[in-house]
């Protein structure tokens, strides 16, 4: 995997950080895209010399083409991990049009825009791998996260459509649907809601929450030749949560 180039969006914390570290530890030069300068630069320092910070807000759709062109000056973009995303917990009737659009803009439109620009580069160089990050919210119904659920469901459908269209160019597209993983975002959602936490663990056959490294390992599998005949799939990494009773 040496001499490969990867991009991880939202790679300065949580699942993105673990993924970026996994790629960098395996010799892949990885551009970590984050909005916050200090947080992104510090993450790259912690990961090591293969991590390169890119300070950019993915909500700036118009700026994405130029940002990708700058990265592509250093060679082919072999791997793109669309990890960045935001959530919002609100009762269904309290969600405004603006609230809904904000989630869709970040979680869906930016994924489409950056994927489109990266695919242009990958086509010129004969292929590549894109890994989208979905959620359990796309596997079954979750209350109070209607916009987030809609965005992640769209990500999975887009994964399949991209895979079919882009296979002819040697570009594989796959998706990971993380279960409940030990991150700050999950802690914020569950620590103040013991009933919700118990429900999560109760329907997870393996009886525990996952680690960010579990997601990173799955991303790495999709990014290597070990998955060379795999495209258009959605892989739940969830301890069985999506099929738990």
From TrEMBL:
InterPro entries: NAD(P)-bd_dom_sf (IPR036291), Sc_DH/Rdtase_CS (IPR020904), SDR_fam (IPR002347)
Annotated signal peptide: none
Record carries keyword Oxidoreductase: yes
Keyword Oxidoreductase carried by entry: yes
Molecular-function GO term, any one: oxidoreductase activity, acting on the CH-OH group of donors, NAD or NADP as acceptor
Superkingdom in the source lineage: Bacteria
PROSITE patterns for this protein: ADH_SHORT
Sorted UniProt keywords: Oxidoreductase
Similarity remark: Belongs to the short-chain dehydrogenases/reductases (SDR) family.
Name this polypeptide is given: NAD(P)-dependent dehydrogenase, short-chain alcohol dehydrogenase family
Lineage, uppermost ranks: Bacteria, Pseudomonadati, Bacteroidota, Flavobacteriia, Flavobacteriales
